[in-house]
Amino acid sequence: MKKDWYQKELMIKNTQKRHGDHNNRKDIRKIQSWLTLYSIQNPNSGTATDVDGDFGPATERAVKNFQREKGLFENGIVTQETFDVLCGNLKDAFEKPLTSMNFRDLVLETAENHLRNHPYELIINGESNSGPWVRAYMDGKDGAPWYWCMGFVQAIIDQAASAQGKNFKTLMPLTYSCDTVGTTGLNKNILTRYTKLRNDSSLIQPGDIFLIQKSPYDWTHTGIITSVSGDVIETIEGNTNLAGSRNGVAVLKRTRNLLKSKIDVFSIEPLV
Which of 169, 176, 208, 265 is most buried, by the most CB atoms less than 10 A from its CB? Predict the structure, then answer.
């Protein structure tokens, strides 16, 4: 895979604990981030805590609560083995072996597997678009300016392409910009405009990439198309929310109406 930053999110340098001799603020923030992410899916777990890099009594208690939830030895200490359990969803999303045979199915399988693992952003030091999932998709970058919808899409395409020994950069450049991908699609004649798609949705295939158009050369949001039915597409998209925001908080499955949004479609056919 070309986008392999996620591997850094799976490791801590040393065992972390309260009053530990080898405590590292960066590693502690990773631990606190995963504890808080766990609490989002398990609100009764008591693992939500500040992401401040300080392994104090609250973080120790949150670790013990997590260990109890997972049937681990309840000592409030985070070894690499404990951290492996904390960040297991990220590892599964990026490393679970894929079984599909053709490229479009690989894209859908990859996107569905990420969705099942609940990618979610955090607000850290007042900055949205933060946390280990965002950094994994954005090659280490996070914070309010870093909208991560295209980072998510490219991670999915990269993972699927790599399963077949292909390089996703032959389809598009590594970028976090919807505009760059849209322009690439126009230059390669693999971007179909919304005006044409509204008359013939059969031009869209599962695995293709949608781009929401603001103006002819300005796109604001993106995601993976999973199915097409008449004027409706189903999608899996990152940095969205229930209202379909381009700056939401999670990877979600959504439905979109081709007649209500200016949805252009970038074809992945050159990699098929």
Answer: 265
Q: What is the pTM of this model?
A: 0.97
Residue 201: burial class (beta carbons within 10 Å; 0-12, 13-18, 19+):
middle
Helix (H) or strand (E) holding 61, with range, is: helix 57-70
- Indicate the DSSP class of residue 120: B
Based on the fold, state whether residues 152 and 81 are members of the same structural domain: no
Residue range 41-66, pLDDT digits in tens: 999 999 999 999 999 999 999 999 99
- The per-residue pLDDT for range 140-185, each reduced to its tens digit, is 999 999 999 999 999 999 999 999 999 999 999 999 999 999 999 9
CATH number, residue 206:
3.90.1720.10
Residue range(s) defining the domain that contains residue 74: 5-86
Pair 122, 166 in one domain: yes
Angle at 211 between CA 203 and CA 95, to 5 degrees: 95
